[in-house]
Amino acid sequence: MFTFWFGTIVFLGTYVLIASEKVNKTAAALLGSSLMLLFILPAGHEEPIPDGKPELQAVEKVVPSAVPELKAHEPSVPLSEKEQKYSKLDAYSRYVNFDVIFTLAGMMILVNILSGTGLFQYVAIKSAKVAKGSPIRTMVLLVVATAVLSAFLDNVTTILLVAPVTLVVTAELGVPVMPFLMAETMASNIGGTATLIGDPPNLIIGSEANLSFMDFILNMTPCVIVVMVIYCIALTVYYSPRMKVTVERRARVMEINENAAITDPVNLKRGGTIMALTIIGFLLHGWLGLMPSVVAMSGAALALVFCKVDLDQMLEKVEWSTLFFFLGLFVVVSGAEEAGLISEFGRVLKFTSTWPPLLVIILIMWVSGIAAMLMNNVSYTAAMVSIVAAFIAATPVFATDPVLTRLLWWGLALSVCFGGNGALTGAAANMVTVGIANKAGVKITYLGFMKYGIPVTLFSLVVASADILVRYFILIDR
């Protein structure tokens, strides 16, 4: 009883601290993980390992009934010195999804190397020039560029790279910058939904459900394209009568030299080639049997070797705070599982066990979209994947149908990524945008962000629900 209630208090308390922003989110996650390791999780102790085989513990968690049979055919062998040492050193490795951690770290290194070449600034300036100084066309092209970049880069990094150029372009055009920044923020969260590496929630879901990069491309990208097309049309219709610029202002934009943005052409060629190879690796990792983290870290290693960069300086640019935030969250969620809280959450969903599968999926999507908006989509997803996994295992209609199981994961991925647009705390990119806007003298309040973000979130969730219905139930006729 102590374990359950203490684990519940730590779990909920950690999420309240994260959502309140009274304490740094990374510090809150690490505090929660420390309490879980100290009082809930059996880590850091010398534990007896059944029949001298540590791998049986992992099997027992997934298929308890299989363990007696395995033991019957497995000779009892005393633990070797190496195995004893390993059993004492794997405290964090038991509870942290290091595939997610190292995938993020590898992509951070690659993006940091490319960002130093001026590539992304070039893309933003070129977009404005292709639009020939038209504010609406410039906005749409910047939005599309942001969405495409966010599918392969970290959303926060994309905003940090595109937003400063947006400030320059809008100043030259003489138009308000806030609509541009807000539109790009929404696009970064929408575009990031398309791929496994585009948004951290997708990495968490993909790792939990064993979904590949190509799985995300085939199942998520079509919906993202539809959302982006509708979004761009809505931006054009709404802002066309509200943004007018003079010929002189347009001429100023056309005079900006985009080639001057490229500051390191050598590293651009080398880093760009390695990034392209890394993306190809992601496309093929399922077929090759490679984990995403292996692909990402291999790309990062190649870039560090062949690109002319200061290794220490490059490693300093890695967002260690984000990585430790994930590490802490994984341990906190594992503690909640150990305490029995996650299984209790899974039982709450059991009232839907007799519902039609489509209705269950849509319900989980909308609840998750709203919760991700309020809690932060990464924090919510870290906990929700365990709840969904428990629900699937306890619900025969999903447990016996791999197609429905995957469909539930796709619905969750769409909803948490789109839900991140709804509020300032919904996604990290949102808070970065507000910080950039404040430095530029533009005040974006929490309610002001929601007035813009909630309509985008709601129409995105409607499109996502329609996508699930049409593509998987009407066309396939389930």
Your description of this structure?
- With 478 residues, this protein is an all-alpha fold.
- It folds into 3 domains: 49-95, no CATH class; 98-316, no CATH class; 321-474, no CATH class.
- 76% of the residues lie in helices and 0% in strands.
- It contains 25 helices and no strands.
- The protein has helices at residues 2-20, 25-39, 55-62, 66-73, 81-89, 91-95, 98-115, 119-130, 135-152, 155-173, 178-192, 200-209, 213-239, 247-254, 265-288, 292-306, 311-316, 320-339, 341-348, 357-375, 377-394, 396-399, 402-419, 428-439, 446-474.
- The protein is globular and about 70 Å long.
Q: Report the helical percentage.
A: over 70%
Main beta-sheet strand count, sense and barrel state? none
The count of strands amounts to: 0
- Name the poorly predicted regions: 48-77
Discrete helix count = 25
Q: What percentage of the residues does DSSP assign to strands (E)?
A: under 5%
**Mean pLDDT score, rounded?**
83
What is the chains' assembly state? single chain
Helix and strand content put the structural class at: mainly alpha
Bulk shape: globular
Gyration radius (Cα, Å) is 24 Å
The H/E string reads HHHHHHHHHHHHHHHHHHHHHHHHH
Please give the alpha-carbon distance between the first and last residues: 43 Å
Number of domains: 3
SSE arrangement:
Layout: H1 2-20, H2 25-39, H3 55-62, H4 66-73, H5 81-89, H6 91-95, H7 98-115, H8 119-130, H9 135-152, H10 155-173, H11 178-192, H12 200-209, H13 213-239, H14 247-254, H15 265-288, H16 292-306, H17 311-316, H18 320-339, H19 341-348, H20 357-375, H21 377-394, H22 396-399, H23 402-419, H24 428-439, H25 446-474
